[in-house]
Specification:
Blueprint (H helix, E strand, L loop, with lengths): L45 E3 L5 E3 L4 E2 L6 H10 L4 H7 L8 E6 L5 H17 L5 E6 L6 H8 L6 H8 L10 E6 L4 E6 L3 H6 L9 E6 L13 H9 L1 E9 L4 H9 L2 E7 L6 E7 L22 E5 L3 H11 L4 E5 L15 E3 L9 H22 L6 E2 L3 E4 L3 H12 L9 E3 L1 H8 L7 E4 L3 E3 L1 H15 L2 E4 L4 E6 L5 E5 L2 E5 L2 E3 L17 E11 L10 E3 L3 E2 L6 E5 L3 E2 L8 H15 L10 E11 L6 E6 L1 H7 L17 E9 L5 H17 L7 H6 L4 H8 L5
Parallel strand pairs: 4-5, 4-8, 5-7, 8-9, 12-13, 12-24, 13-20, 16-26, 24-32
Antiparallel strand pairs: 1-2, 2-3, 6-7, 9-11, 10-11, 14-19, 15-19, 16-18, 17-18, 21-22, 22-23, 25-28, 25-29, 25-30, 26-27, 27-28, 31-32
Length: 706
């Protein structure tokens, strides 16, 4: 079942299906199932050595290592899929089990180790969901052989008899269904080729596979199993975020998984096998055949990274890098975190959705999903902050917006669980207020306290790895040295840095090294409004031309202004009046407020881009782009092999405007993938839409670059 440097372990051998039977895409029809009733069930040919170790005479190998079999399986499959964390974060109704799928049941070692682990989880957390374990085995062991093999593991004695009493092989049975732990665990063993078995599964019987145990004979010795048909089925049954772990690091497996949309990473170990593969399903195949200027070149994985900035972008970037074993230093110019654009008491988190899918909406939908899951994951791990994920309503307060609702309803392009049209009565019921207007309902949206969230993320990063924040450290200038390092001049002296990330928000425009990026500053003032008896029932965020949040500490947040080319962060009474009058004019004075009920305000600066999408990635060498890609001015479709010239070692993550809460976690993952050469969580086209060099490329195409 597993292969080490010196020994190959196996538990099944599968025959590849003919090309005519292979699906051509994830949505293709399933493979034709073999008629098992007309086939003779072939059991494994087993011999036992003097230690009782099962040996396959069919494949001339042992099933597991006598001394370290359990430890290896735990390390590779249970820890490789991070099941403890996944189970802790898993939430589902009772009809949706957590699903693990495996290639090769063999002696059942992986299953029994998972069963034991899950029993401990039940004792500690008492989940209201069940575990489903789907395995495949073309050559199953007889009950007697299985019983003898399991006697090597006394820790499984408590399960063995219950399991064997249900393990009834038969010529007529295609699937064995076995229940364990008072029906908390449902085991299905499909007695056929792995690819055909998975092709026979319909996702309607379960939502998706949550974790894959990709076990089996080594690709060099059993190439018939490791083919695109198998990888297609893994992708078909996965969802974004589905994890996978396997012993093999063979290129055919890594490339096959990447082609089907898995982000694959080598995982190093101190014991047993030195490297294994872990993966996460993104749905975006790794793209190699793209125009040169759209590519991203990854450096050798840095050991240390320095981040400038103390807000949400910096926090998310630090977390994503530390999670991958990189040591992070953060320079924060203030005496505490989140004093810039992340300083507002309350911020809404929701996606920007247009009537038709476009690059902006698709990015913010993806960003919203990543952000929501990440923020909720922090809470489940005990990193708390003030929040409320109780939904958000975009109120159609004028005729043009009501017409927009009709388009959303008649030609829906977004999943109903993401957004739906609701009438005035539903708006009133869901919000708890008499708004008396229809709107769009985004049930999974909500609000957070950005300063508390930033601190929670940094705390989590600090516990995950090495992350140090240096406060009151203002970077005054950045210079690229002849050595390739960066010389940072700060108020506390000079420092030399090898790899630098700018999460500097609006301050980016003041850095000479980034002055060719087309960034702009937009001032925004948020006002805090005293809660009243009439306004306290508000349960959701309300968006109109501005927004209104539920009560937190007896205050609502309303806003915000949008003042271009204004960098003054002092608060203004006129802006408080504007926020108040906009709210009461568009929604009516639903809270019976007076202007005097505004108790506080904050003005901060947003960093924006011309196309309303943020940017993340290596800092482009603008002069190098003009030289390398000048032919774009004559032929915009010209294909280049050369990758984009960049300022090596310098990265930027900024331009999030007013939507940092929705976009920062996904941008941080993209940044981390670039630095450690992982498969990206977005498509190649989406990646270029976020690239810092996209603007110079567009200028060259329009012949505007001098």
């Amino acid at each position: 079942m597993r292969y080490l440097k010196s020994t190959i372990f196996l538990n099944l051998r599968v025959k590849s299906l003919s090309k005519n039977n292979l699906p051509t895409s994830k949505n293709a029809s399933v493979l034709k199932k073999p008629d098992i009733d007309k086939q003779s069930l072939k059991t494994a040919q087993i011999e036992f050595d003097n230690n009782g170790l099962p040996y396959s005479s069919q494949f001339d190998d042992i099933y597991f290592d006598y001394q370290d079999g359990c430890s290896q399986s735990v390390q590779v499959f249970i820890e490789g899929n991070d099941l403890d964390r996944q189970w802790l974060e898993y939430s589902a109704d009772k009809s949706s089990p957590f699903v693990i799928a495996e290639t090769g049941f063999g002696t059942g070692l992986n299953f029994f180790l998972t069963l034991k682990r899950f029993e401990s989880f039940i004792a500690s957390h008492n989940p209201d969901w069940t575990l489903r374990f789907i395995s495949t085995e073309k050559y199953p062991m007889t009950a007697d052989d299985l019983n003898q093999a399991l006697q090597l593991f006394p820790e499984f004695d408590v399960y063995r008899q219950e399991f064997l009493s249900q393990y009834q092989l038969s010529e007529s049975k295609q699937v064995l269904n076995i229940r364990m732990l008072d029906n908390k665990v449902d085991l299905q063993i499909h007695l056929q080729d792995a690819t055909a078995a998975f092709a026979s599964l319909e996702p309607k019987s379960f939502a998706h596979v949550d974790a894959w145990f990709l076990d089996g004979f080594a690709p060099k010795k059993n190439p018939e199993m490791w083919h695109q048909g198998l990888f297609m089925q893994l992708a078909r049954l996965s969802k974004p975020g589905t994890t996978l772990a396997t012993f093999t690091v063979a290129g055919i497996v890594r490339r096959g998984l990447e082609k089907q949309g898995f982000a694959v990473t080598r995982k190093k170990h101190q014991q047993y096998k030195s490297q294994t593969l872990v993966a996460s399903y993104t749905g975006f195949p790794k793209a190699d055949n793209i125009n040169g200027y759209k590519r991203r070149t990854s450096p050798n994985k840095p050991q240390h990274v320095t981040i400038i900035g103390g807000g949400l972008a910096s926090a998310c970037a630090a977390y994503s890098l530390v999670k991958r074993g990189i040591k992070v230093n953060v320079f924060c110019q203030d005496k505490e975190l989140a004093q810039g654009a992340s300083a507002n008491a309350i911020g809404a988190i929701y996606p920007l959705l247009h009537q038709q899918k476009d690059e902006i909406s698709e990015f913010y939908q993806a960003g919203f999903n990543v952000a929501k899951n990440f923020y909720q994951q922090l809470i489940s791990q005990g990193f708390n902050y003030t929040h409320g994920f109780d939904g958000l309503i975009e109120v159609a307060y004028k005729d043009a917006l009501k017409e927009r609702l009709q388009i959303f309803e008649k030609k829906p392009v977004w999943p109903e669980e993401l957004v739906s049209v609701i009438d005035a009565a539903q708006v009133n019921r869901l919000s708890g207020m008499d708004i008396n207007q229809p709107g769009l309902w985004i049930p999974e949206a909500g609000w957070v306290s950005p300063p508390e969230l930033v601190k929670a993320i940094f705390t989590a990063a600090g516990q995950l790895g090495q992350c140090k924040v240096k406060y009151n450290t203002k970077v005054e200038s950045i210079e690229k040295m002849a050595t390739g390092r960066f010389l940072l001049t700060t108020n506390k002296g000079q420092k030399q840095i090898q790899t630098l990330v700018l999460c500097t928000g609006a301050d980016t425009v003041n850095l000479a090294i980034a002055d060719e990026l087309p960034l702009s500053i937009v001032r925004g003032q948020v006002s805090q409004l005293q809660a009243t008896t009439a306004s306290k029932p508000l349960k959701t965020v309300i968006c109109h031309k501005g927004y209104l949040t539920p009560t937190v500490n007896e205050l609502h947040c309303i806003g915000a202004t949008f003042d271009k080319k204004d960098s003054d962060t002092s608060t203004r009474n006129a802006d408080n009046r504007y926020n108040f009058e906009t709210l009461t004019r568009l929604l009516g004075n639903i809270g019976n407020w007076q202007l005097e009920d505004i108790k506080d305000a904050k003005a901060r600066l947003r960093c924006c881009t011309p196309d309303h999408l943020p940017m993340v990635g290596a800092m482009p060498d603008i002069a190098g782009h003009k030289k390398a890609y000048q032919h774009l001015g004559k032929d915009k479709n010209w294909r280049f092999e050369q990758s984009p010239p960049v300022v090596e070692g310098l990265y930027v993550m900024t331009g999030m405007g007013a939507r940092g809460l929705c976009s920062a976690p996904l941008l941080a993952e993209i940044l981390a993938c670039e630095l450690v050469n992982e498969t990206y969580p977005v498509s190649a086209e989406q990646l270029f839409q976020l690239a810092p060099n996209r603007f110079i490329i567009r200028d060259l195409i329009r012949s505007k670059a001098g």
